[in-house]
Amino acid sequence: MIVNNIFCSFYSMLLLRNGILEVYYEIFQGFKNSPKTQLLIPYAPHIIIKEWNVELQERTSKFRKQANAIAEWDRRILQNRDVLLKLEAKVAKVVDTQSNLERHRS
């Protein structure tokens, strides 16, 4: 639950930052053929950052899918904990029985 809240906060910040970068990008495109382009050169890195931001969003989406899959797997393991413990006890009993049979055969 805490991880999900942290992720939601991070994702909201990412969306806000992306919106700001889109505005910078559009302003830069508007001045593209203008003599004032030189004034905007210091802001050119924001365009690169926008591309990085898009890639970050894609990777974040993949990460979230993987994290959700792992969380589901963990939830199922916890739900089936008792079954797994009983199975482990039965396997241990079978191993003991097998060992006893092998000792008696010798």
UniProtKB/TrEMBL annotation:
Keyword terms, alphabetized: mRNA transport, Nuclear pore complex, Nucleus, Protein transport, Translocation, Transport
One cellular component term from this protein's GO annotations in UniProt: nuclear pore
BP GO terms, sorted: mRNA transport; protein transport
Subcellular location, record wording: Nucleus, Nuclear pore complex
Domain Nucleoporin NSP1-like C-terminal as annotated: residue spans: 48-104
Gene Ontology MF terms: structural constituent of nuclear pore
Main subcellular localisation: nucleus
Record InterPro entries: NSP1/NUP62, Nucleoporin_NSP1_C
Family classification: Belongs to the nucleoporin NSP1/NUP62 family.
Protein's recorded name: Putative nucleoporin, NSP1-like, Nucleoporin NSP1/NUP62
Origin species: Helianthus annuus
